[in-house]
């Protein structure tokens, strides 16, 4: 596949940060699992990966702004372009030696997502997308799954944990989806979950309380793979609301409807 110069810059930044994370991941697996040691080490790995990405992108496009998990909002002279970056999505997995984590980089131009990269260095899977150019995994073209019945589908989700999200509301939604779907999966990296929807590995996905850097690249990835992505009301406020629902056209519509159902006694 042919990549634009901008996408190549994003891929190079993700791969370089990925090599750093892969080295640190090997060390984390050898650390004694205590609350302080590994947690501090992972924070250092996170910041180091973000420093690499920031340096690479800022050197290639010095005027662009940033929205990053650690640095937050960084204004640039070019107010038409903004990088949206998560240097380590799936921190808890990383801490526990689970090889399901990712780097996510998206480019926003005049408020529109135009390019995205999601990279899992542990599995060496590189997902890329450009607006109007399709979505790819390791240069293989991606399409969302074609299933049309929720009873045949495996749906991804993010489970709210301690201090995050509304647990009661989520349990209602989960019960509704569990009663209709073939299976529900929680992998622990929203960026990868969205990439898996684009790749057809998951038929759909929903989650609340996400940050823009968790979703931006994945939103474009799914759309370029022929899928649908909205907030839970079917609108386009995902980056603002933190809520997202994704799938092919039919499954997306069914998920939005099913998530709104009250719990029925069984």
From TrEMBL:
Name the UniProt record assigns to this protein: Inositol-1-monophosphatase
Keywords carried by this UniProt record: Hydrolase, Magnesium, Metal-binding
Organism of this sequence: Borborobacter arsenicus
EC identifiers of the protein: 3.1.3.25
MF annotations from Gene Ontology: inositol monophosphate 1-phosphatase activity; metal ion binding
Catalytic activity: a myo-inositol phosphate + H2O = myo-inositol + phosphate
Top EC category: hydrolase
InterPro entries reported for this sequence: IMPase, Inositol_monoP_metal-BS, Inositol_monophosphatase-like, Inositol_monophosphatase_CS, Inositol_monophosphatase_SuhB
Family statement: Belongs to the inositol monophosphatase superfamily.
Cofactor: Mg(2+)
Binding site for Mg(2+): 69, 86, 88-89, 214
Swiss-Prot/TrEMBL GO biological process terms: inositol metabolic process; phosphatidylinositol phosphate biosynthetic process; signal transduction
């Amino acid at each position: 596949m042919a990549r634009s110069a901008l996408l190549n810059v994003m891929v190079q930044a993700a791969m370089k940060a990925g090599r750093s994370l892969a080295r640190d991941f090997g060390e984390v697996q050898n650390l004694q699992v205590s609350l302080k040691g590994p947690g501090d080490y992972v924070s250092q790995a996170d910041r180091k990966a973000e420093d690499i990405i920031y340096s690479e992108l800022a050197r290639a496009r010095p005027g662009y702004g940033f929205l990053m998990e650690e640095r937050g909002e960084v204004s640039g002279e070019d107010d038409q372009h903004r990088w949206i970056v998560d240097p380590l999505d799936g921190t808890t997995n990383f801490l526990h030696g689970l090889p399901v984590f990712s780097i996510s980089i998206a480019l926003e131009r005049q408020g529109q997502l135009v390019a995205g990269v999601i990279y899992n260095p542990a599995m060496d899977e590189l997902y890329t997308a450009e607006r109007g150019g399709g979505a790819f995994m390791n240069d293989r073209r991606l399409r969302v799954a074609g299933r049309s019945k929720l009873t045949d589908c495996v749906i991804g989700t993010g489970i709210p944990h301690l201090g995050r999200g509304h647990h009661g509301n989520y349990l209602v939604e989960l019960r509704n989806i569990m009663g209709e779907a073939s299976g529900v999966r929680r992998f622990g990296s929203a960026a990868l979950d969205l990439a898996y929807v684009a790749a057809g590995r998951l038929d759909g996905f929903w989650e609340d309380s996400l940050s823009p850097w968790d979703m931006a690249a994945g939103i474009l990835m799914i759309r370029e793979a022929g899928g649908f992505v909205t907030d839970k009301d079917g609108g386009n406020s995902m980056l603002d609301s933190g809520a997202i629902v994704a799938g092919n056209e039919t499954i997306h519509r069914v998920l939005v409807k099913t998530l709104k159902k009250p719990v029925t006694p069984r």
